[in-house]
Write a structure and sequence with these properties.
With 184 residues, this protein is an alpha/beta fold. Helices cover 16% and strands 30% of the residues. It has an 8-stranded mixed sheet with strand order 4-3-2-5-1-6-8-7, with helices on both faces. α2 links the parallel β2 (48-54) and β3 (76-79).
């Protein structure tokens, strides 16, 4: 089985989006066609065997249809208790009830957790995450969905890589230690 990569963009103040899920430009770097941002995106696409997301990323409403384009030509697992009645296309969306079920499908490549924050925290809590890749965008959002909450504290990480790029710093860590009790 491959490894599990938690891969998300985050603001300096720890948010993955704005109020109500608003797009605050945290993934603008992903559109780069050359340079370090394009290299990071291409490497992530090439090493991913499955994408894991939550229902909110797929779409919040009961009539959500996901999205039509993705650079990832792999199954996209949506962790939800509310699957739509018909799976949309052309993206290969598969609906599962648990994070563990979704990450098992990546084969020898990464099962890449791409959002949301709740799915990321569940995967950490289950001890499934092998590596964390954060794309730190120098913006202060002020309010929205925090990636980590007080209950997600305690994991020990070791740096693998730091890549500075225009408008974002890419940070990659390996999960090295068991979860320790958060001080409080």
């Amino acid at each position: 089985m491959g490894k599990v990569l938690l891969d998300m963009a985050v603001s300096l103040d720890g948010y993955i989006d704005g109020v109500g899920g608003a797009d605050v430009g945290l993934y603008d770097w992903y559109a780069a066609t050359s340079g370090p941002n394009a290299d990071i995106a291409a490497e992530t696409v090439a090493t991913t065997g499955a994408i894991v997301v939550g229902r909110g990323v797929f779409g919040r409403g009961d009539d959500a249809i996901g999205w039509d384009e993705t650079p990832y030509e792999v199954p996209h697992f949506v962790v939800t208790h509310r699957p739509p009645s018909a799976a949309p296309g052309p993206v290969d969306f598969r609906f599962v009830e648990g994070v563990s079920e979704a990450v098992a499908a990546a084969g020898d490549r990464y099962a890449t957790i791409g959002g949301g924050a709740d799915i990321a925290r569940q995967a950490l809590d289950l001890g499934l995450v092998d590596e964390v890749q954060l794309h730190l965008v120098p913006v202060i959002v002020g309010s929205g969905t925090p990636l980590f909450t007080p209950g997600s504290a305690g994991w020990r990480l070791a740096p693998i890589a730091v890549v500075e790029a225009p408008d974002v710093t890419h940070l990659r860590y390996r999960v090295v230690g068991p979860r320790v009790a958060a001080e409080g």
